Amino acid sequence: MSKGACVADLAELVASHIVDVPDFPKPGILFKDLTPLFADGPVFREVIDGIVAYHGAGSFDVVAGIEARGFVLAAAIAYATGLGVVPVRKAGKLPRETHRASYELEYGEAALEVHTDAFKPGERVLVVDDVLATGGTAATTLDLVERAGGTVAGFTVLLELSFLPGRDRLAPREVHALLTV
Ligand code: AMP
Q1: Are strands 98-104 and 84-90 parallel, antiparallel or unpaired?
Q2: How many domains are contained in the chain?
Q3: Mutate to test the pocket of ligand 1, among 137, 141, 170, 181 (most ligand atoms within 8 A of CB)
Q4: pTM (2 decimals)?
Q5: What is the pLDDT of residue 25?
Q6: Which of the four pLDDT bands, split at 50, 70 and 90, describes residue 3?
Q7: Which domain covers residue 98, as residue numbers?
Q8: Residue 4 reports pLDDT greater than 90
Q9: Which residues contact 28 (CB under 8 A, 6 or more apart)?
Q10: Residue 1: is its pLDDT beyond 50?
Q11: Do 132 and 138 touch, CB atoms closer than 8 A?
Q12: What separation in Å is there between the alpha carbon of 10 and the centre of ligand 1?
């Protein structure tokens, strides 16, 4: 059983399990593919344990994951802490009454939804995703969590792209990134 990786180890683990994919999903985008990290059992466990250790088990009541790679992280954190997981989904996927919020993408618009009864009033919600880029997805998700009655207890990504304004856009909310490039 690992004693737990330190912050620098976790950053290195993330860095060494990213595959850069140029021009995906469209020309000019350098896609940061983190599926190799998900696929490596011991590394995935270190990363999940590192996220839980950073926030402290007991500092959140439920974990929300942003579709779709956020689901992988959220489910593992929830299982590791004995908590439940809530999906924040692309519009039109959730079957019952939802809160919905639209946001600007580089080209066009996208929308996210969460069930209106996803959280108990005041429930402390840890929100997770794989990559923070412009911050539109995260900002919209954190707003939805609050509209649905949750309190944002923390927001974690594996990778933050610091040449984009995600962190500034989320301020004064804190961003926890295992690796910032
Ligand atoms: P944004 O709303 O611009 O912060 O984009 C964040 C969402 O898009 C996250 O759910 C990421 O999974 C995905 N994403 C954005 N840019 C990238 C990228 N360069 N590589 C991988 N995923 C990305």
Answers
A1: unpaired
A2: 1
A3: 137
A4: 0.97
A5: 92
A6: low
A7: 3-180
A8: no
A9: none
A10: no
A11: yes
A12: 20
Q: Per the structure block, which two tokens stand in for 100?
A: 């919905």
Report the CATH number that the domain containing residue 25 is assigned in CATH.
3.40.50.2020
Residue 31 beta carbon below 6 angstroms from any ligand 1 atom:
yes
Distance between CA atoms of residues 111 and 90, nearest Å: 6
Residue 2 has pLDDT above 70, yes or no: no
The structure tokens listed for 7 are: 């912050």
Residue type, 141: T
